[in-house]
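Q: Got a minute? One more chain.
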Amino acid sequence: MSWFPGFSTAATGAWLFLLLIPLIIFYFLKLRRPQLQIASLALWQQVISDQRVNSPFQKFKRNLLLLLQILLLSLIALAAMQPFLKGDAENSQYLPIMIDTSASMAAVDEAGQSRLDLAKEQVREIIEGLLPGQQLTLVTVGSTARRLTEFTDNKPLLLSALNGIETSDVPSRFEDGLQLAQAMTRTFKIDQVRLYSDGNLPTRKLPTGDEVASVDFDLSYALDFFVLPTAGRNLGVTALNARRASVDEWDVFVRVEAGVAESASGQLELLVNGAPLREAEPLSLEAGASQRLVFRVDASQPAHIEARLTADGHDALKSDNRAFLDLPVGRDLVVYCAPSLAMYRHALSQMPGILMEPNAEGKSDHVSYDLLISDTADDLSKEAATSLLVGAVPPEVKPLITIETGLAEVVDWKREASLLQHVQLREVVITDLPKRATGIEDGDFEELGYEILAFGNESPLILRKRDGPKLLYSLLFHTDRSTLPYRVGFPIMIQNLITEALQQASLSELRALATGALPPLSVDPKTAYQVVGPGPAMSLVSNDEGVLDNVPAQTVGEYEVRQGGELIQQFGVSLINSTETSLKGVNEIQFREVKVGAESERVKTDKPLWSTLAAMAFGILLLEWWYFQKRPSGMPA
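A: Always. Here it is, folded:
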């Protein structure tokens, strides 16, 4: 910070110094001679002396009132020139300030001060030190970026918005904040952007062994990255999942990690439907270490699991001490497989844990299924979480494609797709030839919500569509008219389908829901529902298809979906994020073209002096009033 002051409105305020000229002239011309009766002319000698005393410079020298008024006017003129002590940061006319509001910013030190509180302190100094012509906008960055104010120099408005900022139990998406600032540059001249964060970003390892945060973004402005000090010791639950051990039991896995700052200890308790499963497990972890614990839970009834962590001593972050998981009753996978698909039925009959319909007598007892496999599009009317349509075209795709007799060739396929993992489709002979209609492109399938998994020489061969909680696979060729059933890849594909159907039905492996949004929920169409959780209750309406989607869940805790007071579904959401629990801050961020280093020292902002000068002027005015209006000594009350 420079001790030589600058002036924001020097040209405007300097004109006030010209008021000193009429003030001094007024005192030069001012001469009051009192009328006195004298007894002798000898006293005229005193009058001559008075004339010498009333000469301009003598009067200026002895008049205290004039000196005080000159000083008062000078201070007012200086205050009007808006003097300030220059800080370290460059001044910008338009300055966006981004504040990280992710879960780790709620971490508190042993004094009880959070990282967000520290960021607010620094931003508050910037707001209070705003100079004329400077404007700020505040942006919070959590699961998304949100602009709190327009560019303004209204200090009460900015301070009110700053005081209202709170953290959310979610990881941050800095790309959203950077893109929002990028959009502002199209309207305002923005040279720099300030980011206040604890630096808790996902990292990748360099060949040198160092870790760096990488953001896939091109900066078009200077980014000032101010990193806040870490909060200290932390212990948190970073994973909670369950895997079916058998139809009657679940294996529940809990991972606990310690922050990178210090070693930590505590106890972990697993509650099933509100009751402890067994004695609390003691934990003792070195800094940055983790421990995995396994619990066996009965699957004969639904189970609401809560992992509750209690740390010994100081624990910086509280939101990662609880995690939730809901387990359904263990049962067989209910599959409808059309009687005409003999090869599929034979493959399913060899797999354990499968209840297949129609049975040997051709009877079906269920009205809904976990998995439907059929070669008739009309069977899609049956209720099923996962469906596979073989050799038939979904109704909405019929205008795009026709099936002819001919030789189709698999050109390429998405090997990472769940259905096609470890499935070799090359050299598969297909005698169904799907053809696109005239003018149809891949984008036309995507507009209908379909993803192309396998490409043929004339058109797509395998499609996938996810519609809310439902999943549909469509083979546009019939496997009976191909060599696929005679390849090793066919039973692998069936096993992949079963695995995905188990996951869709929550029967194989379940993971704790992370904060952000609740999963899609199938309900009545166009119906109002209430969502009650840790925050304020929300009223939402389901869409035309009967799906309640994109329900925000920004805080760790339990949420209930109700309709008219009746409980429809209960969810528990957890932080479950190793990066947030570690409280590890990065020292630099690698962008596409540049690398931005973190600044840990507190930025020294400009310090306006006009208020100090105005206060001094007011003090001199009070001194003048008191001195010249006080009662003369010796005068009676």
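A: The chain has a mean pLDDT of 85.
Q: Perfect, thanks.
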